[in-house]
What we know:
This protein is an alpha+beta fold.
Amino acid sequence: MALNSTTIARHISRELGLSHAHLEVSMKLILDTIKERSIRTFSKFFPQIFKLGNQGLVDVGRGTNNFRINPQLIPPGEILGFARIVPPASMAGYYNPSLAVGSAIDQQIRHDLASYTKTPITAKFIPPNKISISPKYYIIKKEEIYVEIRRLHNKNFFTIPISLADEFLRLALVDAKILIYNIRKNFPNLTTVFGSIDLDIDSFSSAIDERKEIEEFWKENYYKVANRKRIWIA
């Protein structure tokens, strides 16, 4: 099931039984909370990986090897960090297809020898939207390199893959419950001329602990794993 505002709203309504109950918050407010809070937490564990070429890097000048990520491609507020840099073939011997001939041992020897004469390209992220690339960029400025940026998912939800939809919906539902709880905890009971109305606050009071459990589960099962899920957007 592909996620969008409609499918998420239907899921929240179904799980909270909105067809038989009236909530003190609108669905718009619930969706706004999910867009602001749920997406940021989800992206921390399952970031969207955005691949930038040379055209996406703006030289800041002043004799440095620092480059600004083009804000028209990725706004600074959506950048979570730097994933890795993919150098051109000429800067890394193991990317050279001409070395991939002969036996496996011969290939390894040639790659090892080539690596001694090649200076590896490294990059360091400088918040909020700069990258320092070494060695100096003028060496490779005529060749294409790629920088992979960890960024927030889109607030239209279309960048969240179907394989992770259930994980996101778990978090979205919990954040909706927390929003409702923060309002209801101030009014555990309503007194009317017909008597006292129980707002069923107990059904929402555990939402904060549920959120912590989700984050701990993701941290143990995904965040510390080297090959954890990464979402690619070219």
